[in-house]
Design a protein that fits this description.
CATH topology of the largest domain: Aspartate Aminotransferase, domain 2
Radius of gyration: 21 Å
Shape: globular
Order of helices and strands: EHHEHEHEHEHEHEEHHHHEEHEEH
Number of domains: 2
Bound molecules: pyridoxal-5'-phosphate
Number of helices: 13
CATH superfamily of the largest domain: Type I PLP-dependent aspartate aminotransferase-like (Major domain)
Strand content: 15-25%
Distance between the termini: 52 Å
Length: about 350
């Protein structure tokens, strides 16, 4: 097959992972809280009255209305995809020519780089400064020097939990001509969205998802918010029926019942702070502040912690150490009892290795 395969695809590794089968899963920043049963039943009734032999709405008008009500962005400034993953792919299809430069801070969400390499773009990761503070000056400098097409900022950042201030975002917007893609996948946990800046900055696009705070990773629905001009271009490259009828219905139901679904946010934030202060009492762990639904920490015991949790049927995210970073762990906030179980295992590993 090699002779048929594009050069930049040859060395890519396919994303073929089985759904993890563990008692506790805290490796993917999903919500620990499932969609409420009463809404699942409502959805089932609705589906029973839906003609599944027909194609779904190609441009999801009901979902756009509900999203507009939620975000305050007019429907003409919204597009949805099968997860924000698909929206990132659409951005590349619409705007990125082979060789174009895409700049981001590093470490950040891995799909920026993966979709860039599929687009044959030149991905330029700018390493964080000390304490995982993104190096904004270098990002701006690189973007301008290399005439970047796109800059990604992830706010709050996955995996470090770093939150960009409004001043920092404005600084980038006022200093570059590239498209700024602001990934707000975790914004509900932070609360300080930059969506209002769309009114002033035509080169800004905000990414969101139902996979995190809405607890709907299983339905695969993400969206982009922007000005009509930029969204119109994304519609040009979108597949005809990219959101199936079930996804559209559940997403609308979720938005109409958002007060109930998002009522977990307070508990998740307070659990996060409890976990953070408990981890801070342990030696050898360097804990980072987080504005999201996970906590990131660095430790020479990262592998041992990962393995011990695995032995106890718990899956957490372990980042191996590299030249630039020591080993680290990203701990997605689970239910309080799960968090306590995880903390006691981490405590044990640290004490045994003291
Ligand atoms: C920062 C960030 N953006 C986007 C995504 C992708 O989300 P989706 O499930 O909508 O594809 C993730 C998933 O982990 C993420 O961490």
């Amino acid at each position: 097959m090699k002779e048929f395969t594009r050069e930049n695809i040859k060395n890519l590794v396919a994303y073929k992972v089985d759904a993890p089968q563990y008692e506790i899963i805290v490796n993917a920043n999903e919500s620990a809280y499932d969609f409420p049963m009463i809404l699942k039943r409502q959805f089932c009734d609705d589906i029973c009255n839906t003609d599944l032999n027909r194609y779904p709405e190609a441009c999801f008008p009901e979902l756009l209305e509900a999203l507009s009500d939620y975000t305050g962005v007019p429907t003409e400034g919204i597009i949805c995809g099968s997860g924000s993953d698909e929206v990132i792919a659409l951005i590349n299809q619409a705007f990125v020519d082979p060789g174009d430069v895409i700049v981001s801070h590093s470490p950040s969400f891995s799909m920026y780089e993966i979709w860039s390499s599929i687009a044959n773009a030149n991905y330029v990761p700018v390493p964080d400064l000390a304490d995982h503070i993104p190096d904004l000056d270098s990002i701006i400098q690189k973007a301008n020097e290399l005439d970047a097409k796109i800059i990604y900022l992830c706010n709050p950042n996955n995996p470090t939990g770093y939150t960009f201030s409004r001043e920092q975002i404005l600084k980038v917007l006022n200093s570059v001509s590239a498209l700024l893609i602001l990934d707000e996948a975790y914004i509900e946990f932070f609360g300080e969205s930059s969506v209002d800046l769309l009114k002033k900055y035509p080169n800004l696009l905000v990414l969101r998802t139902f996979s995190k705070a809405f607890g709907l990773a299983g339905i695969r629905c993400g969206y982009a918010l922007g000005n009509k001009d930029i969204i119109d271009v994304l519609y040009k490259v979108k597949g005809p029926y990219n959101l199936n009828v079930m996804t559209q219905k559940i997403a609308v139901l979720a938005l109409k019942n958002r007060d109930k679904i998002l009522s977990h946010l307070g508990e998740i934030r307070s659990e996060r702070e409890t976990i953070k202060s408990e981890l801070e009492s342990l030696k050898t762990l360097k804990i980072y502040p987080s504005g999201s639904n996970f906590i990131f920490f660095e430790t020479p015991l990262a592998q041992a912690i990962y393995q011990k949790l695995l032995d106890n049927n718990i899956l957490i995210k372990w980042f191996k150490d590299t030249d630039r970073h020591p080993g680290s762990i990203r701990f997605s906030i689970g239910k309080p009892s799960e968090n306590q179980q995880i903390l006691s295992i981490i405590r044990k590993v640290v004490t045994e290795n003291a």
